[in-house]
Amino acid sequence: xxxxxxxxxxxxxxxxxxxxxxxxxxxxxxxxxxxxxxxxxxxxxxxxxxxxxxxxxxxxxxxxxxxxxxxxxxxxxxxxxxxxxxxxxxxxxxxxxxxxxxxxxxxxxxxxxxxxxxxxxxxxxxxxxxxxxxxxxxxxxxxxxxxxxxxxxxxxxxxxxxxxxxxxxxxxxxxxxxxxxxxxxxxxxxxxxxxxxxxxxxxxxxxxxxxxxxxxxxxxxxxxxxxxxxxxxxxxxxxxxxxxxxxxxxxxxxxxxxxxxxxxxxxxxxxxxxxxxxxxxxxxxxxxxxxxxxxxxxxxxxxxxxxxxxxxxxxxxxxxxxxxxxxxxxxxxxxxxxxxxxxxxxxxxxxxxxxxxxxxxxxxxxxxxxxxxxxxxxxxxxxxxxxxxxxxxxxxxxxxxxxxxxxxxxxxxxxxxxxxxxxxxxxxxxxxxxxxxxxxxxxxxxxxxxxxxxxxxxxxxxxxxxxxxxxxxxxxxxxxxxxxxxxx
Length: 488
Prior knowledge:
Low-confidence stretches: 1-15
Number of helices: 16
Oligomer: single chain
CATH superfamily: Amidase signature (AS) domain
CATH topology: Amidase signature (AS) enzymes
Strand content: 5-15%
Radius of gyration: 21 Å
CATH class: Alpha Beta
Largest sheet: 8 strands, mixed
Distance between the termini: 35 Å
Strand order of the largest sheet: 6-8-7-12-13-11-9-10
Helix content: 40-55%
Number of domains: 1
Order of helices and strands: HHEHEHEEEHEHEHEHEHEHHHHEHHEEH
Shape: globular
């Protein structure tokens, strides 16, 4: 066996050698490229951890052990041959069950889609494959990927490694549970209503929703038109345990693919911001008052950034309240077109959640908003984007909640219409940001009440680099230790 490199130990590990599955993606790539350790060793360690953890957490709906090891062998051969290597060369990761991966079923958590075998990789999956990632499995999501709770009739219920009674988030809950528990250092997710940022927050890891157009994407059948909300609001991105790994994930996923109608090849690194950098602290209390743990995380993050030289000032940005409600007009009214299919093949949780979404949204948009409201909504969206861009001229970064609550109790969204109302309010930033198309990152900070707490950073369009810089400051003070082995 090849000699394994020794990297700096985390505080709790001190003299103890970490297992390969505990390494970051950046550490793995460095060791594989220098031939200090093989991709096969790393992938085998990941598979061993999956075998230990997945029966308990059900984060992965499928695992491809033999296929992954063969891919790892090819990765090692490429290193030996001196070939050009990608940013995730030889690193194990998983793809969400709602994205096409060649030869695999894109079930999207729906029994009727179990045999929906993809003929080719979606653009973002193709980019990850070109970057050298080794696909070890498919991470779970709710049916139709439309809940903040990860459960479906095909693959079952995914648990949060911190507490099985709490959601791991959704819809990329399988990705978050897998990364937080050490099954892999990085995983793929997508986000049209918080589906990267919320699972990362609920499990104590990092999640990046890039700017719309940053990562090429295609969602749904390759021969069918994509809905307008998907084209304008659905972003593909990585979930990881470190900021450095998020950087690698974005680098791997970003290259151009002609299948994406709005992709923009913008450099990953922009001009330095003028210092001192102003940060707007937005708590959103007029929409949903943050619980104590969330408020504490925001205040401590603000203090950390202030100590690092940022000027942090509390602000009020009313357009976010309007934007989150507008999401329920533009996305949910468009989704109404497939409600007959949901009623036919969807599971109980999806049907009930949709019923509750519409029940709350009708207070804002009426029971049956029409084409005029829909057209005016998109017109208003452009105005809100312009307003936020003007605001970000003074405050290039916003510090805000991911959610006003910590990880919800399982199935909170379908418990009652009133509980859904409070859940939707707590998740205001989950909907407002996709509506506006700006980059945002979920950043873990501490453990409160036995559950992860964290904050969200939002930046100017195509300035993910400014989010990484601020997140790295917060990362230095993060007291959440992952990967975590469930204690229950």
